[in-house]
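ok so I'm stuck.
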Amino acid sequence: MPKFPFIALLLPLFLLFTGCKGQQPEPEKPTPWGDDPLSLAEGEAFDLEQIEASGEMIMATLSGPDTYYDYHGRQLGVHYLLAQSLADSLGVRLRVDICRDTTELLQRITLGDADLVAMPLPRALADSIRLCGMGADTAAAAWVVGTGKEHLAQLLDKWYTPARLNNMRRHEDFLLSAKSVKRRVFSPMLNRQQGVISHYDAFFQKYSQPLRWDWRLMAAQCYQESTFDPKATSWAGARGLMQIMPTTADHLGLSREKMFDPESSIAAAARYLGELDGKFSDIADRRERTNFVLASYNGGYHHIRDAMALAERDGHDNRRWRNVADYVLRLREPKYYQDPLVKHGYMRGTETVDYVQKIIDRYHTYRGMPSVGTNFHNTPQRAKGRGGSKYAL
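replied:
not stuck anymore, here's the structure
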């Protein structure tokens, strides 16, 4: 037993208290940007200065051909492009919030959840917003910001002009034209008598096998994408024989350095087609499923699912491309792309329907068969008889 049991008992307590006394809270370190510049005084608006300090501008809009839509993984719409140009000039990033209707747009602005509505709105609106920019004193041409954002409004009054709008519209028209795609046009068939389609036939034969596709179908798709030019590029960033987007290449494990390599491009495209094929496993008819896969490769999987939902809602067989193609075309119309069933908004459906049809027509040509094409731009009539799409492979 220790000589000093009482001291032995007190010693741990003494050390505990002296240790705690020495642990003082660390002084608060200043942030790299100093005192919080984004904290607002009561009643103060989140104006231009706060937008620049935050590094982000929030745009509220509706989906539509002039406002905002997805196109091959890139965003278009003349008003979106204008807002992006403004954000670039301010050195901030642009965040886009898609609203369901005008009521939601105005609610976002009045609550301060968005900085501006980047689309023309009529003058007869609530008192809690400010019309600004081109034609703010006319019937239906102005953008909108919330009250209290006077500096942002003053900037837009000078910046959003008819000349700027027209220039951006011409720029978008160029992007959507064939002129924006850099490629050499090669013959659609090297040697018809010998059945040689391209210099890449061996790759089509190799990588189409896991898909259970006729290699000539993949060749027809490649010609539609790049006209067999391995150096083809588009304004949106698609590259190579199969016009793969950089983000898709990353997903597929295709390095950016190999995007122009013919075999690598075809191999990656085959993997992507296989993924899309798996997503349409609910379509039992493989020939029909191929039409949906091609449409998704061009127009986006989610847009095609939107069209399928509309077709099913209206009582049509949404596993037949003929029926769904009609709704892909209708997604150009506000009545359809603003329908609650539609989750991904407006799409350029004409291009996607043409894309599928041209590939099928060329595939039949490669097989030495007559074209079975029909003009999809009018509402297609249902196939008569025992069924089967006229456009099935």
